[in-house]
Amino acid sequence: MKDKKEQIKLLLEAMVVGLFSGFVVGFFRFGIGKMTELWLNLFHVAHRNALWFIPIVIGLALVGLIAGYFVKKYPHVGGSGIPEVKLQLAGNLTLKWWPTLWRKVIGGILVISTGLFLGPEGPSLQIGSTIGQGIGEGTKESKTNSRVLLATGAASGLAAAFGAPLSGALFVLEEVFHNFSPRIWLNALAGALVSDFVVSNIFGQKPSLSLVYRHSFPVKLYGYLLVLGLILGLLGHLYKVGLFKGKKIYAKITFLPSWLYGLIPLTLLIPIAYFWPLITGPGNRLILALPHIIRHSSWKIVGLLLFFFIVRIAFSIISYDSGLPSGIFLPILTMGAVIGASYGLMLVQLHLLPAKLVINLIIFAMAGFFAAVIRAPFTAIMLITEMVGSLLHLMPLAVVAFIALLVDMLLNGDPIYGTLARAMSSKSKNDVPIISGKTDQLTVPIYEDSRLAGKEIMQVKWPKHTLVKAIYRDGQYVVPNGQSIIKAGDSLVLTLDAGQRGHVFSQIKRMQKVEYDG
């Protein structure tokens, strides 16, 4: 009875996390929208009067200085924030929630609204996670429940950003937390639903991408989907390689301190926003314009779209690697959409595909590029399904996402957020774990290829100060003994010292020889 009351209490707290996340992310999206209109108007009037470039240059410089100063004072405000959330949930990073929250909100609005090829979804996830962390601290929850609320906030923030609650919860389970236990998914989904309700009904904000198509993709044309998946996998791999190398190039810059790197993309933005305003920003305006662009099918339009893609992929890398507070979710979907449109129009010009099916390829390509880059295929499929609002595309969507993911895996591509999290962790690694004297809990899923599967608990050399408290199997918690056999599909509930959680988590990963971040 006590456990049930605790579960209900945690669920109510998760809904409160969703409520606050919805309000804050709703304001975040509203602020970005209004500031974006301001910047677009400034560049528009600059076409008629060049003197308007003076406030444009001053304004962009101020954005770079303010956002850069935030990152200088609190480095984990930079970037999307998703690697930070992964490290927090693994016990390898501790952040103060309030300094992160307000800096991320203000910095994100200032940066994303300028027109840089950056998106609000990653920052929204971190904003939600800080709210979950704050509520966990305010209610004095246990370490385990506090992490549940942090994960709930992450799901709620992403749901509010995309207007897609199922995808928000699924992404946190699939890519961020890697834990599908009932305690996690139930609370994450509850928070995501509440936050989506807030942004939809109070702020009146709808899904950021709403594409409509009326024709299913014929099975006889699936061969074209295999080629599309191959293209997306190759380009997605290239994009990730560019992101990782871009950070190294920035590190070699000596004429600017690292906290002012954002001034570089902000300077390059001026000619892009002046000549091609449609392609600026996260990319939702460009995606929504694609159905109108593809009506004028010609090789000239194909060339224009390929040019847009080259600019988008190059400037997205330059923008993100500068370290400004921002994300790449929506820019990734935008690149996928442009690839799909270009490929589809090529097939139309070669008389291999009816023009009415190009919109299908745009939708499929968004999921495929997302799956290749983020390495979260289920989230990719669910996200596009929620945005489109139809299940007709499910099979071809899954085919493209699977092929793109497979290509990246064959090329030894790394999961982008896992790689960034490892790089971040290595910079602040503490080889001597702290003994805090406080008890914590860690839930470890056992996969089919885990080296722990099939072993008795007593046969495993567990990390110091770690005990197997319970085994979650077939919907029930089992109290184990030394002869209990660990099976694939189990989740082990470990008790450990709170100061050693990150250290134990890393040791268990090595013992299992399983790459959670894939």
TrEMBL record:
<dbReference type="Pfam" id="PF00654">
    <property type="entry name" value="Voltage_CLC"/>
</dbReference>
<feature type="transmembrane region" description="Helical">
    <location>
        <begin position="357"/>
        <end position="384"/>
    </location>
</feature>
<keyword id="KW-1133">Transmembrane helix</keyword>
<dbReference type="GO" id="GO:0005886">
    <property type="term" value="C:plasma membrane"/>
</dbReference>
<feature type="transmembrane region" description="Helical">
    <location>
        <begin position="326"/>
        <end position="345"/>
    </location>
</feature>
<keyword id="KW-0868">Chloride</keyword>
<feature type="transmembrane region" description="Helical">
    <location>
        <begin position="301"/>
        <end position="320"/>
    </location>
</feature>
<keyword id="KW-0813">Transport</keyword>
<protein>
    <submittedName>
        <fullName>Chloride transporter, chloride channel (ClC) family protein</fullName>
    </submittedName>
</protein>
<keyword id="KW-0812">Transmembrane</keyword>
<dbReference type="InterPro" id="IPR001807">
    <property type="entry name" value="ClC"/>
</dbReference>
<keyword id="KW-0406">Ion transport</keyword>
<feature type="transmembrane region" description="Helical">
    <location>
        <begin position="52"/>
        <end position="71"/>
    </location>
</feature>
<feature type="transmembrane region" description="Helical">
    <location>
        <begin position="221"/>
        <end position="239"/>
    </location>
</feature>
<dbReference type="InterPro" id="IPR006037">
    <property type="entry name" value="RCK_C"/>
</dbReference>
<dbReference type="GO" id="GO:0008324">
    <property type="term" value="F:monoatomic cation transmembrane transporter activity"/>
</dbReference>
<dbReference type="Pfam" id="PF02080">
    <property type="entry name" value="TrkA_C"/>
</dbReference>
<keyword id="KW-0472">Membrane</keyword>
<feature type="domain" description="RCK C-terminal">
    <location>
        <begin position="429"/>
        <end position="511"/>
    </location>
</feature>
<dbReference type="GO" id="GO:0005247">
    <property type="term" value="F:voltage-gated chloride channel activity"/>
</dbReference>
<dbReference type="InterPro" id="IPR014743">
    <property type="entry name" value="Cl-channel_core"/>
</dbReference>
<feature type="transmembrane region" description="Helical">
    <location>
        <begin position="148"/>
        <end position="172"/>
    </location>
</feature>
<dbReference type="GO" id="GO:0006813">
    <property type="term" value="P:potassium ion transport"/>
</dbReference>
<feature type="transmembrane region" description="Helical">
    <location>
        <begin position="259"/>
        <end position="280"/>
    </location>
</feature>
<feature type="transmembrane region" description="Helical">
    <location>
        <begin position="12"/>
        <end position="32"/>
    </location>
</feature>
<feature type="transmembrane region" description="Helical">
    <location>
        <begin position="184"/>
        <end position="200"/>
    </location>
</feature>
<dbReference type="InterPro" id="IPR036721">
    <property type="entry name" value="RCK_C_sf"/>
</dbReference>
<feature type="transmembrane region" description="Helical">
    <location>
        <begin position="390"/>
        <end position="411"/>
    </location>
</feature>
